[in-house]
Write a structure and sequence with these properties.
Layout lengths: L7 E4 L7 H51 L6 E22 L10 E21 L2 H8 L4 H8 L5 H8 E6 L6 E4 L5 H19 L4 E13 L7 H9 L2 E4 L7 E14 L8 H11 L6 E6 L10 E7 L2 H10 L29 E3 L6 E7 L2 E6 L11 H16 L11 E4 L2
Parallel strand pairs: 8-9
Antiparallel strand pairs: 1-3, 2-3, 3-14, 4-5, 4-10, 6-8, 7-8, 9-10, 11-13, 12-13
């Protein structure tokens, strides 16, 4: 039991029990207490470190948006590792009296104890700099980034508004480029309407986003039949053999996964030669050009589009969001009359608020040049569905992870900060 001073009182209910046995039981309790404290402390430390690193990365994104807002160069720092050691200590003391008189029916032992947990973390941070990292930030994103984000369930219009620099539309005489820049009002309006049309088709499950897959054949003259080892070797390398006839040679067939395409029809319905020709046509352009083909005669074909979505670099996305704070802010655009129901269509793709003082309801905020840049918390009154702004910031964070924070083979100076 406990006394009023917080000490443990062990009462011998059985006077015949030796006092050393009572002390042994008390020591065992202390050992068990130490074993319980160890996992609890480590569990809390791991959770808190994870929360801290997550918040650091989010505020770094905001800080670089603020830098770009003032036309300063961006710079990132990554937390590459956190190493922590824990020192668990237990102290104990015995106070009280032991009565063995004839009138005594028990003995009292007051046990004072203390526990201490010492934590010594070392945080390793890496300044993200150098030629390789700069190229990754400045190089336009490729279609694999778009394909990855589109499969995570994010709103397609949101993803393309962040990633898209513009759309190259095939015209009768020459291609036409419409840019994703609010200052170019006519082009921006057209760009937004095209994306809303794609998003509406995607919401109705009438849009296909997938790589072009076709088969390539290589006739091979063989002097004798295929052996089982040759068949297995071809399969291991991604090939397969077709059976040969008396007047036809054996054919070695390779399955090719080509470029990404966004269409309103199933590519598998095209014959193999047509899929191959389409991929060869797309291969002439770099991987930051994403092919789009909304054909007449299929869902959404009354508003046709054939061309390419042009992707930005991560640095250009940061600058685009920063300019959208004030000088080049987005505005509301109604969908084209030929577009079906649109689920969400906010004016701003990512709303960063600039203020002279911190916001009370900010989820993340940073201070730069005397101003505060914040993302508000998701309003509870709108229900449990994540808000557009929160999702857009999550897309930006995912792009940050994919393009910036690969520090596994970093050659820049590493800074380790031990906790004093």
């Amino acid at each position: 039991m406990w006394n009023q001073d917080g000490a443990i009182i062990l009462r011998r209910s059985n006077p015949s029990r030796p006092i050393h046995l009572t002390l042994t039981l008390a020591s065992a309790c202390l050992l068990l207490l130490t074993g319980c404290l160890s996992p609890i402390a480590m569990h809390r430390a791991v959770i808190e470190y994870d929360r801290t690193v997550h918040r650091v990365e989010a505020e770094l994104l905001l800080l670089n948006i603020a830098r770009a807002r003032h036309y300063r160069p961006v710079h990132f720092t990554a937390v590459s590792s956190v190493a922590a050691t824990f020192d668990f200590r237990v102290s104990a003391g015995v106070l009280g009296r032991i009565s063995r008189g004839p009138l005594s029916d028990d003995s009292l032992v007051d046990l004072n104890y203390g526990t201490e947990v010492a934590e010594n973390p070392t945080v390793t941070i890496v300044p993200v700099s150098g030629e390789e990292f700069t190229k990754r930030i400045l190089r336009p994103l490729d279609e694999s980034h778009l394909n990855f984000l589109a499969r995570q369930g994010f709103d397609l219009s949101m993803v393309l508004r962040l990633l898209g620099r513009g759309i190259l539309i095939d015209g009768e005489e020459a291609p036409v480029v419409v840019l994703n820049t609010p200052l170019r009002r006519e082009e921006y309006t057209e760009f937004r309407r095209r994306l809303l049309h794609l998003a509406a088709l995607d919401f109705q499950k009438r849009l296909y986003i997938a790589p072009i897959i076709y088969e390539e054949a290589f006739p091979v003259s063989l002097e004798k039949g295929l052996t089982p080892a040759e068949v297995v070797a071809a399969i291991d390398r991604g090939y397969r053999w077709s059976a040969s006839t008396d007047d036809q040679p054996a054919i070695l067939i390779r399955r090719v996964t080509g470029r990404l395409a966004i269409t309103n029809y199933d590519l598998k319905r095209l014959d193999n030669d047509e899929r191959k020709r389409l991929n060869v046509e797309i291969e002439r352009l770099p991987p930051d050009h994403v092919f789009v083909d909304i054909r007449p005669g299929f869902p959404g074909g009354e508003y046709p589009l054939k061309g390419f979505i042009l992707l930005r670099s991560f640095n250009a996305i940061i600058s685009f969001v920063a300019r959208g704070i004030a000088e080049d802010a987005g505005y509301h655009v109604d969908p084209d009359p030929r577009t079906g129901p649109v689920q969400r269509n906010p004016a701003h793709v990512l709303e960063i608020e600039e203020s002279s003082r911190p916001l009370n309801d900010a989820e993340f905020d940073v201070e730069f040049e005397g101003k505060y840049y914040s993302i508000r918390k998701f309003p509870i009154s709108e229900g449990m569905v994540p808000s557009w702004n929160q999702e857009a910031f999550a897309v930006l964070a995912n792009l940050y992870q994919m393009t910036v924070t690969d520090v596994s083979n970093v050659k820049t100076p590493i800074i380790s900060i031990p906790k004093g």
